[in-house]
Protein 1
Amino acid sequence: MALKRAAGSKAKEKMKRRAYEKELRKLQVELSHLQDWVKQTGARIIILFEGRDAAGKGGTIKAITERVSPRVFRVVALPAPSDRQKTQLFMQRYVERFPAAGEIVIFDRSWYNRAGVEYVMGFCSEHNHRRFLELCPEVEKYVVDGGIQLLKIWLEVGQDEQQKRFHARIDDPLRQWKLSPMDLESYRRWYDYSRARDMMLGKTDSKHAPWHIVRSDDKRRGRLNCISHILRSIPYKKVQRAKVKLPKRSDKGRYDDQSTLKGRSFVRETY
């Protein structure tokens, strides 16, 4: 099973920023090559991220997407379902966000909400939870057989590191928005989430859509390991591009285009 293949060891020393940024740049260059290949071939790819609160999903997704086009790498982070969506098929609101040709869709949490927060917090019944775990591999096989590559990634963070990150959010006004009552409740129910995680992995780690676990106590190593895994998992090739050469600017119709701005409202140059 993929879980055994994904097992790894914890890093003894956290990665230094300079080394991290050097390696990240290399991987981001490869992500740009992946982007070109996806556009040229019309590939359709889904990358979904799950994990405990404060496991580093947002930072990992940012590292993946900050140097590529949002038209190719689309990030989907759905809010709680509306009253209308609650009456639809559970997967319906996710399926409508699936990729078209030439797109990579990244789900920041996904349909696996039903196996995690919905189950632990009692937002779905035992029957619905059990039915989801039974049907999910079949639905994912239908997706994969339809030509979409599906990568499922679980970010695993330890108790001590999660606690440090929660305290950092409490003390930092730039990160306080990341804390919600639901986050605090999930922190309290650590072992309930552990059991839910293990049930989910046990039932939905399939040959056609395996789970891969990334240790994320060291955020930097975790991000690099995750991006490396994504690049290894997709059979992309470097697309040869014609070298771009800037054309000569035309002097036709030349005029003083700066003086025409006099009298306009400019932003105050505070810096």
Protein 2
Amino acid sequence: MTVFRRLTGLLAGVLALAAIPAAAQDYPTRPVTVIVPFAAGGPTDVIARIVTDNMAKSLGQSFVIENVVGAGGTTGITRAKRARNDGYTIAMGHLGTQAAAPALYPNLQYDPVNDFEPIGLAAGTPILILAKKDLPPKDLKEFAAYAKQNADKINFAHAGVGSVSFTTCLLLNHILGIKPTSIPYQGTGPSMNALVGGQVDAMCDQIVNAVPQIKGGTIKAYAIATEERNPALPDLPTTKEAGLPEFQASAWNALIAPKGTPKAIVDKLSDALSKALDDEATRKRLLELGSDIPGKDRRGGAPLAALVKSEIAKWGPVIKAAGATAN
């Protein structure tokens, strides 16, 4: 009887393993949930919706965006870590949740490197230095002087400790030698609304979230923190041109899956993402927002895994030097 049970158990295990490739081959057979760890309307949400719209067409199933806000995006990524690793729940992580969070959150409930399967980089998003439209400084040099002179009065909006808007402004403030008041919101969308409404003074934000407001004149932009100007905002100077070359920052957004998601499924998602980035209509939408579309050599799981490790090494020291932490 014992031998029979053992043989039955062994046979069940073999059949289960054999079923994995079949399941991966048929994947997806139902909608895929994509956890976006910020509010709707922010840059991570916008990029997720653009790329998964095309991925849905490629894979023949809908991709449903689930916005899970809180703790600088770490609440949503924690949920993604705990999801079933069957390919039907993935997430859109970014610089803040996958690189800055380990240094900011002593009790972080996930390991960005070891708790996820990297699917691929979706888009790079240059950082802009922004302000409400009636803030007095006219250019970046005046803004830097104004911020130093009014360090006890000026405030910066962000999407929570650990978010891109928080982390990149942390670097900016460190360079300027100031510690202004920071005001958190449940996502970059709400914080941008506060900036447009004049409820906050300034913000460091991803270009994807700011182009329409800048062109519409509802906010002002001082510079883009990249080596070259961006085609979406050709008249906006770089930080180097504007007098603050030390401030260089570009965020990124990437799809990840829970650890243990079958490789065949991860590869299928990665291939669909790459096809989306080659699609003319998808590229047009991303480029109009100022996104940096990764080339073939930067796509897929391996380049993303290397990027996460290098970004953790880059931002950890910056955060620790600033003495920032989220308790």
Protein 3
Amino acid sequence: MTKLSVIVPVYNEEATIEKVIGLVRSVDLGDVEREIVIVDDASTDGTFERLETYGEDPDVSVIRHSRNRGKGAAIRTALERVTGDMVIIQDADLEYDPADYPRLLAPILNGEADVVFGSRFKGRIQDMAFLNLVANKVLAWAATLLFMKRVTDEATCYKVLKTDVLRSLDLACEGFEFCPEVTAKTLKRGYRLVEVPITYRGRSAAAGKKIKARDGFRALWTLLRYRVKR
């Protein structure tokens, strides 16, 4: 039976983490099994205390970093523990809806793709800040130009990959450069990438959004670096 591993990198999301876990567990995946691998990146609020309540849950694994290392590092830590055939990245806020999982998994399950991106720009967007929208468009354009493959949403959180494909990328990311590193390496290596529409509900910095302008520049540099790197 096919199994999905849901990787949840989390840092200071006390208010939303339990709801996110509930949404991931409630979505109907048909015959696909699931596991949830959560990496708490040294949260300083009550996030980890909430996660400790899942200690006896056979479908949920909780790992804690002793110091804050970044989203990419948390994903790489989780990747060492996953046992599924496919991996999806799930942020611990409520910007992305796990109800989109079936359509995200379908291209891989049908043998049409090795990698699936959930495109916000093919789907429905609510409350995305204007500067974030511009940055996302620039990164999508850059990825398309650099790798000669149309990409509408390079920076989407919802990336689904066959587990062996993700492990083959030999990730080096520590922070938010996870997305451009995955994009660059999958496109450069010729893996079959499909985009599907998803729903997105943005949140503000005041509500806890963590990505900054410098992360956009770092993402652009990451795309360029892996394009020219042998």
